[in-house]
Amino acid sequence: xxxxxxxxxxNIELCEDPHLFVNGISAHDLHQGQLGNCWFVAAxxxxxxxxxxxxxxxxxxxxxxxxxxxxxxxxxxxxxRFWRFGEWVDVVIDDRLPTANGKLIYCHSxxxxxxxxxxxxxxxxxxxxxxxxxDGGNTADALVDFTGGxxxxxxxxxxxxxxxxxARNQLxxxxxxxxxxxxxxxxxxxxxxxxxxxxxLDCGLVKGHAYAVTDVRKVRLGTGLxxxxxxxxxxxxxxxNPWGEREWNxxxxxxxxxxxxxxxxERERLGVTVEDDGEFxxxxxxxxxxxxxxxxxRMINTSYLSIHKTWEEEVMRGSWCRHDDPLRNRSGGCINxxxxxxxxxxxxxxxxxxxxxxxCLQQQDKRAKDGKGxxxxxxxxxxxxxxxxxxxxHTIQKTVGSSIYINSRSVFLRKDLKxxxxxxxxxxxxxxxxxxxxxxxxxxxxxxxxxxMTDEPPHTCWTGCCGYPKLVxxxxxHRADGLQAQDSDGASDPYVIISCExxxxxxxxxxxxxxxxxxxxxxxxxxxxxxPIRIQVPVFQESLGMLLFCNLQCWG
Length: 556
Known about the structure:
Blueprint: E1 8-9, H1 38-48, H2 51-57, H3 61-64, E2 77-84, E3 87-94, E4 98-100, E5 103-104, H4 116-128, H5 139-147, E6 150-155, H6 165-180, E7 184-188, E8 210-220, E9 233-240, H7 264-270, E10 279-283, H8 284-290, E11 293-298, E12 312-320, E13 347-351, E14 355-363, E15 378-385, E16 398-402, E17 410-417, E18 420-428, E19 435-443, E20 450-451, H9 463-466, E21 471-477, E22 497-500, E23 503-506, E24 520-526, E25 533-541, E26 546-554
Pfam families: C2 (PF00168), Calpain_III (PF01067), Peptidase_C2 (PF00648)
Domain Calpain catalytic: 13-300
Keywords: Hydrolase, Protease, Thiol protease
């Protein structure tokens, strides 16, 4: 609820020398006002530390800056850009800002004549419908809107990072990598009830409150020359409270004794200050002890000119549409609704070779209309299918991965997938719901993504003379045992070929094994059901000195 306040609008008399930026841009320029949008201010604080990113949000900022030498060039409007649903959206606002008693009531800077943070907030409020729409939100969404990246929310309680040092070390390396490669990071302590929101703990941290992560480092311990030869380093993380005050007061807080273990030069390099400015350092073990939620917003590298890992991005747009005809219905609900689950959109993805795949499903934000509306619960399943599938599934296959189902704007999943073909099924939790979605898929090599649109082979002008399939057969080759070596050196790299009516499906090669787990499927739409299906595995025949095929024929 908003208290009753008299709102006025900024005019030129409020300050004599207004500027977009004063002495550059930094996380310290932002202080949360009377709006409950710490999630947005925390995201802005993270953005302020990345020049390449904030210049996308505030384009041509030099041309928008107030020039006291040319006051006639000032138009009183400002231009911002935000990434929404797969594209950058331009937002233009005027320079009128809500005030009370001559002061800004919402986001503001330390410097009374600096207004970039207040103007970005107004532009984002316009994008979302109104200022009230910013009262409570998701930091992960704001980070994506500022960058076009992919946000991965992490539950630190589920990961057991407090108890397991190895898991904690691996998490720190992930956080460090995201930070070093230009990503944005936020964190919070979960509030379990309404009374917990913005409750201050004895350690100085605030529950139900978003913090911006502004630095991640391995800090060298020790002083003097010997410190350069010591290998002991401490995993550290720096955060900022959007309120600009109320800091962590435990180990490695601004004036704690622990900083005596670090050289003066190292402290200066880290920017350690003894000020109640809302920014503070923690060691990563304490971080995992107190914080419950972490958001990593990755800038996915798709450049071929990079020394770091590059990704191939596929973007698929689609809709959940309700229809009375089951073959045309595209709103079947989650896999709990088995009768209608496969009536959802189906997106085919080829993974080759075995690879880590990043998948993000996003829905249109219903909050953006007049600050009202609730997002529906969404998620997706990944089904491993036949290597030659080109038509929609009508039988549920093997599920190899599933996202969480939640009523957020987007859901994310990172999954290691074996070489093969998969179908991603994006769904709402309940059947019958409608809306648009955006599916982003990142793989190591192009994944040849396409939506499966047709249910069966089409009838053509040749159907009358060439015939039409009478039977659909799925073949699943699980494994082979006791295969002979394929060459005279004793090596064995087997594969299997499944063929029917002139169509052939070949499995990936399994290196250096005589008992391969093929786990490969093929599907055939058969015009001649009496013709056999042939399964072949290459076998080296030592007596003949040549490679032969072990054949198996079956009918069905």
